[in-house]
């Protein structure tokens, strides 16, 4: 299972985040884009080394790169009120890798950050590349390609759901379940808007296939996420972590994030 989780994290570091940064319609993001491959390479290498000083140093290099991305996020100019929903989603995306990097440094050093088991920290690294970065960025993107109340709601519910799930790590499974519900509603809305754009706004069949496939995968993968959160909170039977990594994790990483980022790039969308 952990080999698979590491592979998914590598996909997030080396493919999903740099692809997402190319969707930012802001020249000020250029420095973060140029720096990212170096930090991402260090972070990816750290995953495959034994825990210790070398792995921690490499993970710290990744954390520095993620901190540069955070600095860019904090330096973005204020947006007009009509863009607040989109900006909330974009800022969530830009901060997500820093949360993942903090968990990575702790896990690679063997430190139980906030008392969490090292396995939980590993899963946090994965989640904040996909739910924390890819999902939030694509949700913000919807406000540009399909503006309206539904897109604004999705742009707000995705970061809100991610935050509630994060709070649930420190409280109870019921809070995690509430966050999963909010996040699922937001992601289903994102999927529906993506599907609509694939059917009516895609410039060619390949782009339509990428966006449509991303939307369908997202709808299915969120059912798995919801079933797992429900089972954790209630004790009902639910998929194991290994099964979730092999299904929900792979689907989100490859089907939703990679196909979605490539599809939106081909569609010429920017946020």
Calculate the terminal CA-CA distance, rounded to whole Å: 35 Å
Approximate shape: globular
Q: Work out the oligomeric state of the chains in this entry.
A: single chain
Described by strand count, sense and barrel closure, the largest sheet is: none
Number of DSSP E strands: 0
Q: Tell me roughly what share of residues is in helical segments.
A: over 70%
Radius of gyration from the CA trace?
17 Å
- Classify the secondary structure makeup into a structural class: mainly alpha
Mean pLDDT: 94
Total count of domains: 1
**Separate helix tally:** 9
Explain how this protein is built:
InterPro entries: YndJ-like. Keywords: Membrane, Transmembrane, Transmembrane helix. The chain crosses the membrane at residues 6-24, 55-74, 86-106, 118-141, 153-171, 177-196, 208-230, 242-264. It comes from Couchioplanes caeruleus subsp. caeruleus. The chain is mostly helical and 271 residues long. It has one domain. It is 81% helix and 0% strand. The protein contains 9 helices and no strands. It has helices at 2-21, 30-46, 53-75, 84-109, 118-145, 149-170, 173-200, 205-234, 241-266. Helix 1 runs parallel beside helix 5, helix 4 runs antiparallel to helix 5 and helix 5 (118-145) runs parallel beside helix 9 (241-266). The longest helix is centred in the last third of the chain and has 30 residues, at 205-234. 48% of the residues are buried.
